[in-house]
Write a structure and sequence with these properties.
This protein is of the alpha+beta class. Among the domains are: about 70 residues; about 150 residues, Heat Shock Protein 90, CATH 3.30.565. About 60% of the residues lie in helices and about 10% in strands. The strands form two sheets. The chain has a five-stranded mixed β-sheet with strand order 2-4-5-7-6. A two-stranded antiparallel sheet has the order 1-3. Helix 1 packs parallel to helix 2. It is rod-shaped and about 175 Å long. The protein binds adenosine-5'-diphosphate. Adenosine-5'-diphosphate (ADP) binds next to helix 5 and helix 6.
Length: about 350
């Protein structure tokens, strides 16, 4: 009986070991080894080698499905990656081309800029030179015409009139040349603006001094009125005077014989107002903005009645802008015009 028990136990142990060995071999062959291969394949993919494919010939059914899934995912990833690389490459190429085009455009722009600067400099040099060469003889003509007119005996009316005409037209020419010179200076960026306390009463007196003879020649009454409460303001004396002279000479020019031009200075809404009021030919509303453009003239035909260069108001606006002032116009055709320069309250001294 004892032998029988020992034999049974040994037999049982042998069978158990055999089954264990078979289970181990089968699991290793069909499960563990394919899983190991998958692990290695994952490691390959992690290092960027996406072209991996596993053989599922000796794997268990579930493992075999897993391998199949793995293979298809790896293949998809591989295709996507290839495509991505292609896309990145083509985008990089496009960017490189765009960069090269930009570089070429920048070079062209730089070249054009240099040429433009040269041309602007050349233009303003030429204008300054021409203007200077014209101004000097013209000033002499005006002075000699004045002397000759004053020396003319009262009984020689026609001779006197000739000298007056020479003087008047030379003055007009000189004003035009001055405007051109200032525009050239402004383009070349060489306009300097002073900012110091100025007495508008003084400026108005000087404008009256220069404009009264012109008004007399055109047979227009020119008067000025400065309110007693007008304060000192910060600005550029010369430029403000030029602005008022340009407005006054326009007002006189575009006002028929017997008309009136008034320069009125007072304190109004928004600051100090300098108004040039005339009862001349007026300006249609559609031209109110355009008259401030360079070379714009309402009548620009060669047969026009009024002389001028079309630069006066452009200068007025530029001079106003550099001083922080503003310019506006109110006018109707045939109803006269009012040009207003407004000096803002913050320019008032004190
Ligand atoms: P211009 O040298 O021709 O006077 P401006 O720039 O001073 O040039 O003026 C431009 C245009 O605006 C003038 O040609 C004229 O048509 C119009 N203009 C300017 N001021 C007056 C005014 N007071 N009355 C009528 N028209 C004016």
């Amino acid at each position: 009986m004892r032998d029988n028990v020992v034999r049974d136990v040994a037999y049982f142990l042998f069978i158990t070991l055999l089954i264990g060995a078979v289970v181990y071999a089968v699991t290793t062959f069909f499960v563990f080894r394919p899983l190991d291969r998958m692990k290695l394949a994952f490691a390959d993919m992690g290092e960027g080698r996406l072209a991996v494919s596993l053989d599922d010939a000796h794997a268990a059914r579930e493992i075999s499905r897993l391998i199949e899934r793995f293979n298809s995912t790896a293949a998809e990833l591989h295709t996507m990656y290839d495509h991505l690389e292609e896309q990145v490459e083509s985008r990089t190429d496009e960017l490189r081309k765009a960069n090269a085009a930009l570089e070429r455009q920048r070079d062209t722009l730089e070249r054009l800029n240099v040429e433009l600067a040269k041309e602007t400099q050349f233009k303003s040099d030429l204008l300054s030179m021409v203007n200077h060469e014209l101004r000097t003889p013209l000033t002499s003509i005006i002075t000699f015409a004045q002397i000759s007119r004053e020396a003319c005996p009262p009984d020689r009316a026609s001779e006197r009139h000739s000298w007056e005409e020479i003087e008047k037209n030379s003055q007009i020419l000189l004003a035009m040349i001055n405007d051109m010179l200032d525009i050239a200076r402004s383009d070349a960026g060489s306009i300097r603006t002073a900012c110091e306390p100025m007495d508008l009463g003084d400026i108005v007196s000087s404008v009256r001094g220069t404009m009264t003879p012109l008004a007399q020649k055109y047979d227009v009454a020119f008067c000025t009125r400065v309110a007693s409460d007008v304060p000192l303001v910060n600005g550029d004396f010369e430029k403000t005077q030029r602005m008022l002279e340009n407005l006054a000479s326009n007002a006189i020019k575009f006002t028929p014989d017997g008309g009136t031009v008034e320069l009125r200075v007072d304190v109004g809404e928004g600051g100090v107002r300098l108004r040039m009021i005339d009862d001349g030919i007026g300006i249609a509303p559609e031209d109110h903005e355009r008259i401030f453009e360079r070379f714009f003239q309402v009548d620009s035909t060669s047969t026009r009645k009024y002389n001028g260069s079309g630069l006066g108001l452009a200068l007025v606006r530029e001079y106003a802008a550099v001083q922080g002032f503003s310019v506006s116009v109110e006018s109707e055709l045939g109803q006269g015009s009012t040009f207003t320069i407004t000096i803002p309250s913050d320019a008032i001294v004190g």
